[in-house]
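INFO batch 0412 | record 1 of 1 | parsing
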Amino acid sequence: MASFMIKPAHLRCVLRTGRLINEHRTRNTLCSVRSYATEGDIRIPKIYTKTGDKGFSSTFTGERRPKEDHIFEALGNTDELSSAIGLAREFCVDKGHTFTDQLDKIQCILQDVGSNIATPRSSARESHTKRTKFTAGPITDLETWIDAFTAELPPLTNFILPSGGKSSAALHLARTVCRRAERSVAPIVRSGEADPDVAKFLNRLSDYLFTLARYAAMKEGSEEKIYKRPQ
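INFO prediction complete | emitting C-alpha cells
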C-alpha cells in the first residue's frame, strides 16, 4: 500500500495504543510520529494534548466517544497485548531465540489492528476504510509459523500450565492478554464496525503464542509444568 499523509486538521485519531497515531501508513505498520512543522520551522510536539481530560476520546473518523466505549476498550487491550509481547520478546532475545523477528512483525501488525478498530464503519468514509483495511495475509503467516513450530514439538498429551522458563511464561501471559483482546473485539466485528479478519488474526495469534511458548521451553531445555489434579 502506498504511503500517505494526513492533513493536520485530521489528526484527531486517538488509538489507545498509548499515543496519538497519524500519518504515514506503510504496508504492515502505522507509524506514530506527529509533526506540526511549517516551512522553516521544526517543532517538537508535546506528548499530552489535554483533549481527553473530560473522559472522551476521538476515533479515526472524528467521532468523540466516552473512554469506556467498547472501541477504546478493545484498543486498550490490543495495546496491552503488544506490550506483553514486547516484554516476552526481551526475555527471548536474552536467550538467543531466532524467532524474535516474528514478534517484531506481530507488534507492527497489532498497530494495524488498532487502526482498523479505531475506524468504526458506521462513521467511516471510503478514504478512512482504504487506509485502515485489514486483510488475511498476516493470518496466513501465523498459520505457517504455527505449523513449523508444531512439527518440532512433542505431541501435546496433557494440560500445560504457564511455565517453562521466563521466555515461555511471558509468552503464555501474552497469550492470555490476546484472548482478552479477542473477546473485546468480537462484538465490534459482529456489529460490522471492524473487519472480520481482525478477530481471526487475534484468534490465530493466541494459538501462535501458545505454540511458541512450548517451543521456547523446549529450546531452553526448561521443563513445562503439567496439570495434576490436587490430592
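INFO post-check: The domain at 67-220 is CATH 1.20.1200.10 (Hypothetical Protein Ta1238; Chain: A;).
INFO record closed
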